[in-house]
Design brief:
The protein has helices at about 5-25, 30-35, 40-55, 70-90, 115-130, 145-150, 210-215, 225-235, 250-260, 305-315, and strands at about 60, 65, 105-110, 135-140, 160-165, 175-190, 215-220, 245, 265-270, 280, 290-295. The protein is of the alpha/beta class and about 325 residues long. The protein is built from ten helices and eleven strands. Helix 1 (about 5-25) packs across helix 3 (about 40-55). The protein folds into three domains: about 5-90, Arc Repressor Mutant, subunit A, CATH 1.10.10.10; about 105-180 and about 290-315, D-Maltodextrin-Binding Protein, domain 2 (3-Layer(aba) Sandwich), CATH 3.40.190.10; about 180-290, 3-Layer(aba) Sandwich (D-Maltodextrin-Binding Protein, domain 2), CATH 3.40.190. Residues about 95-100 and about 200-205 have low confidence and may be disordered. The longest helix has 23 residues, at about 5-25. The strands form two sheets. Strands 3, 4, 5, 6, 7, 8, 9, 10 and 11 form a nine-stranded mixed beta sheet that branches.
Amino acid sequence: MKQGSMEAVVDELACLRALQAVRAHGTVTAAAGVLHLSPSALSQQIKRLERASGRTLTVASGRRVVLTPSAHALLEAALPLADQLDRVLNDPGPGEAGRQQTQVVGHVRVAAFTTALRAHVVSVLAGLRRTQPGLTWSLLEVDPDRALPALTAGAVDVAVVHHWRDRPAPVHLGLTISGAHHDPADVVCRRDDPLAGTSSNAGGDDSPGVEQLATRGWVSTGTGTVCHDWLLHMFARHHRRPDIVAEVPDFTLHLELVRHGLALALVPRMGRPPLHEELTTLALRDAPARVVGVATRSNQDDDPAISLLRAALLRALD
């Protein structure tokens, strides 16, 4: 906001407080004394507010001043906004010596992938709404392959992202990715699947290998997604390719496809709903895992609102 515009807002706020004081104390003189103004200065503030609103706000009643219905309506509508503006203007900045900022004011745009939303992000935002009423946010559900470019472009401020453990994360200059929470992924099958009897040794020699898995149909999150690329990579390391029979973004639907015997699925544990009694997981010899972190623009790492939200998300991931 330009300096002149801010000064005008502050001036209108002072006029509103003058009208509020007259309502509370009944006379211009008493209200002026509370605000440490002269009665003439306070009267001028109310006149400015009348000109700005186009309404008559006070009338004389003997030696007292009473507010018109328009004035009461104006105060009811404007005082909550004025209180919020007061908090913004009087909130100490991070560089003010001797004062510690306890409430953060700002709006943060958040991007996160679906399972992180389900497992952590929504509850974190709900908690911050209770403890930090001055912090507002907007939320975008998006995979990391789109979230990181959006962060670089300035379309979002914080992104919860992931990459697969044995594949390097893509490099994005100007971004900082904090945290390295490991989220294992399991192959899910039906309990009566012949493969289910091969996984009792928790990843030992009798666990199913890629050769066995390659003969089965798979459900994937879809071409171009991180999880789809990992499924291809898991087989490509052994010079095989999975038979993908369905492409569905929602892991919950992956489990339904598996339950009906239509496919196998590779499903991360984060945000995964409880498995149906008909389903089980396979212990793999080389179990995959996602590495989940929180990305921000490096030049905004110290921003109070962004730092607060990043720290809350990282605590939830640990």
